[in-house]
Amino acid sequence: MTKFDINSKYRMNSGYEIPVLGYGIRLLVLFYILSNLILRQLNSGTVYRNEEPSASAIKKSGLPRSEIFFTSKVPPKGMGYDGTKAAIQESLQKTGLEYIDLYLIHAPYGGKEGRDGAWKALAEAQQAGKIRSLGVSNYGVHHLDELEAYIKELEAQNGKGKGGSIDVGQWELHPWLARPDIVEWCEKRKIVLEAYCPIVRGKRFDEPILQPLVKKYNKTPAQVLIRWSLQKGFVPLPKSVTHSRIEENSKVYDFELTAEEMKSLETGDYSPCAWDPTVASSSD
Prior knowledge:
Elements: E1 9-11, E2 17-19, E3 23-24, H1 30-35, E4 41-43, H2 51-61, E5 69-74, H3 81-95, E6 100-105, H4 111-127, E7 131-137, H5 141-158, E8 168-172, H6 180-188, E9 192-196, H7 211-217, H8 221-231, E10 235-237, H9 243-250, H10 259-264
Helix pairs in contact: 3-4, 4-5
């Protein structure tokens, strides 16, 4: 069996580690999650208006800061160099944290100038020790190719390693939206893939392909989907406001899907349940 537990982590290109299971933040349950040692990774963002409560929960939990992995994001309206610098500073001020573990560009909007400017600001903040690891969210392959080329430009100007590295990419990922092109691009570059909406907002729990696995392992559809995500090598970020479901969703370490069962969940569908900025043009 592939061994995962609450302490399991992946090493990123930055050299830092990220927990293999995270949580898409719901404010009412933050302290409960941390104080009950259910999860150690919180996925925050400026547009969610949850950075300050997240930091408060971290402090109240009594856990060492080094044991909590905190993520925030550049808001789509904050794209560009100046906007991103301001967003980073605002995140640090609101949270009172000395550093942010991971900062992502939330979506590939703002045109090339906006995307390049945002990345340059992130890379500078990383060099200054304000951010430990960098990444993007909702980028299509064409956006990723563009960013890779820009990182090379920054390194040519400023020196090797001074352009930042893509450490993490975050996308909606589940059996009905497996994104093989993006996954392949990232895996070739050892970029950690985070999966938001890993349980498809509960909309697919009655799907026939899940029922044999639910019965065989005596698990919920959500647990099966989270386990699928883990075995794909993703970092799933399930959400819930119910204490019992949060605990339930974290109990995915005591079973393993077989290779045949993993294959049975390959639907080939392209069915987002959330927004899909990956299809935005490079000029958007």
